[in-house]
Amino acid sequence: MSTVFSKIINGELPGRFVYRDETVAAFLTISPVAYGHTLVVPVEEVDKWTDLSPELWAHLNEVAQNVGRAIIDVFGTERAGYLIAGFEVPHAHIHVFPANDMSGYDLSTAMDPDSVDEAKMDEAATRLREAVEATA
Predict the structure, then answer these.
(1) Where is this motif: Histidine triad motif (predicted)?
(2) Which residues contact 22 (CB under 8 A, 6 or more apart)?
(3) Which of 37, 59, 91, 93 is an active site residue?
């Protein structure tokens, strides 16, 4: 059975993409710790990041770094947070989010999808996509 991330990548579920190539996709999470919170995901369904090939792991991190730079530029934050948890979806992914302190590292503080401002999400996706494309 496909993961929810595969369904987003394959267009079966909606997603706000900020980057996509043949092996990696980056899209906003529906439960952000801050607007701009992006998931960087391999297209291939691999449960644990430790099981990714070294080449795919390197590329996933290259994309995460580009998204992180874009987050800092777009949101004017001190840093871009980087977190691997992986318990909520059995598909390897990196959380990259705006960070001025450690609060974003606690995913239990993420916004409920029903309380997210859709216009802010759309704006974040557009601005990040443009910034990522400019750095590529």
Answers:
(1) 91-95
(2) 43
(3) 93
Mean pLDDT of the chain: 95
Indicate the fold that domain 4-135 takes in CATH.
Answer: HIT family, subunit A (3.30.428)
The region, left, alpha or beta by phi > 0 then psi within -120 to 50, assigned to residue 76 is: left
**Catalytic: 91?**
no
- The letter for the amino acid at 87 is F
In the structure encoding, which two tokens stand for residue 102, read together?
């450690």
Q: State the pTM of this model.
A: 0.95
Evaluated on CA atoms 96, 98, 101, 107, the torsion sign reads: negative
Nearest CA-CA partner of 16 in 4, 3, 30, 6: 30
Residues of the chain scoring pLDDT < 70: 1, 136
Rounded distance between C-alpha atoms, residue 111 and residue 33, angstroms: 6
Check if the beta carbon of residue 4 is closer than 8 Å to that of residue 39. no
